[in-house]
Amino acid sequence: MLNDPLANALSHIMNNEKAGKSSCIVSPCSKVVKKVLDLLNAEGYIGKYEEVTPAKGGVIKVNLIGGINNCGVVKPLFSVKKDSYEKFEKRFLLAEDFGIMIVSTNQGIMTHEEAKKKGLGGKIIAFCY
């Protein structure tokens, strides 16, 4: 049984990326997984993705472009205030302005850069660089 669909999806993407494959199949899919894949696509880390079976617990085919060096889920979830992102950038990212952290805020899931601009805090759920 899979306990964390987001962690399983990111780990599957990372393993296929390291193996040099051009696509991978992620299962099960959820709203959170789709939103994180949208953010990774917008930032240029992965290509387009499509839902193979759009039902609950369905399957997503992700096109990989070789843009990911490392990605993962942050466990346990850390709460971050609107002015303390730098501490977590040093912890999870290699350098300043290199990579993204994905934050769950009261206005939805977004990158840490968007949350900084909007002046929002939240919970850090994932990182990618």
What would you say this structure looks like, in words?
The chain has 129 residues and is an alpha+beta fold. It has two domains: 5-64, Ribosomal Protein S8, Chain: A, domain 1 (2-Layer Sandwich); 71-128, Dna Ligase, domain 1, CATH 3.30.1490. Helices cover 33% and strands 35% of the residues. It contains four helices and seven strands. It has helices spanning 5-18, 31-43, 85-92, 112-118; strands spanning 23-26, 46-53, 59-64, 71-80, 100-105, 108-111, 122-128. The longest helix has 14 residues, at 5-18.
Strand content: 25-35%
- How does CATH name the architecture of the largest domain? 2-Layer Sandwich
Give the CATH class of the largest domain: Alpha Beta
Please bin the fraction of helical residues: 25-40%
Quick one: overall form?
globular
Biggest β-sheet: strands ordered side by side in the sheet: 4-7-5-6
What is the tally of beta strands? 7
Q: What integer value in Å does the Rg equal?
A: 14 Å
What are the secondary-structure elements, in order, as H or E? Answer: HEHEEEHEEHE
Helix count equals 4
State the end-to-end CA separation.
Answer: 29 Å
The CATH topology annotation of the largest domain reads as Ribosomal Protein S8, Chain: A, domain 1
Low-confidence stretches: none
Integer tally of domains: 2
Rounded average pLDDT: 93
> Main beta sheet: strand number and arrangement?
4 strands, antiparallel
